[in-house]
């Protein structure tokens, strides 16, 4: 609940916090989980209700050695078939930690999500092995993982998807100007409000800095 001079934030547990200003720094698509009183302006509400989270998942495969580097590869594998859409080498050689980050996205991810957890893991490992040569020594090394960690962003309660929310055709042109606009004493600093690097840590940090500066400037005036 927000007024001219104060904002009251009530949690699901009934706790109430009072402040002069509030910064909302969550994905735009999750604003619908908050009851704003008075409601958000029509343009802001139109933007929020038309924003969809990405269908995305990330898996980290850790190995005893960087077999792809030893084979002269950079660890960037891509496929339009999936489940491996693309991968990145995220190894830390100083700590002898050798890992590939695997990303599953879009329609491929939607189908992959229908599998049970073990089948999802196996599908990624087998596809990676197929990309480097299913019956080759590299295929064998790709299967020989030490650890498998996976995050399915579509199942994250406070995110709903990733790596960022998306608007349909023409929506950014029509409602984009209200993306960063404050509503009274409520300011918006989620990653999608960044001018650059939306969906990445850099974008989240700069968006937060911008929103914080807005608050500081208004409280100082």
TrEMBL record:
Superkingdom classification of source: Eukaryota
Keyword Glycoprotein: no
Name of this chain's protein: Amine oxidase
Species this protein is from: Trichoderma arundinaceum
Gene Ontology MF terms in the entry: monoamine oxidase activity
Top-level EC class as recorded in UniProt: oxidoreductase
Pfam families hit by this protein: Amino_oxidase
Positions contributing to FAD binding: 192
Keywords, in A-Z order: FAD, Flavoprotein, Oxidoreductase
């Amino acid at each position: 609940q927000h007024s001219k001079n104060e904002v009251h934030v009530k949690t699901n547990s009934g706790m109430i916090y009072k402040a002069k200003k509030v910064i909302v720094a969550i994905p735009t698509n999750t604003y619908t989980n908050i009851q704003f009183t008075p409601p958000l302006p029509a343009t802001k509400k139109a933007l929020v209700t038309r924003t969809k989270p990405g269908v995305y998942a990330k898996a980290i495969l850790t190995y005893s050695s960087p077999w792809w580097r030893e084979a002269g590869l950079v660890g960037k594998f891509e496929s339009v078939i999936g489940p491996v859409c693309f991968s990145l080498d995220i190894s830390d050689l100083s700590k002898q930690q050798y890992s590939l980050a695997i990303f599953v996205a879009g329609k491929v991810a939607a189908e992959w999500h229908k599998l049970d957890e073990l089948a999802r893991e196996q599908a990624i490992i087998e596809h990676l092995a197929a990309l480097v040569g299913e019956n080759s020594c590299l295929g064998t090394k790709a299967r020989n993982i030490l650890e498998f960690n996976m995050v399915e962003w579509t199942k994250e309660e406070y995110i709903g998807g990733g790596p960022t929310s998306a608007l349909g055709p023409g929506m950014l042109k029509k409602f984009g100007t209200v993306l960063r606009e404050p509503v009274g004493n409520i300011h918006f600093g989620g990653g999608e409000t960044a001018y650059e690097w939306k969906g990445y840590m850099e974008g989240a940090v700069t968006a937060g800095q911008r929103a914080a500066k807005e608050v500081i400037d208004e409280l100082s005036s």
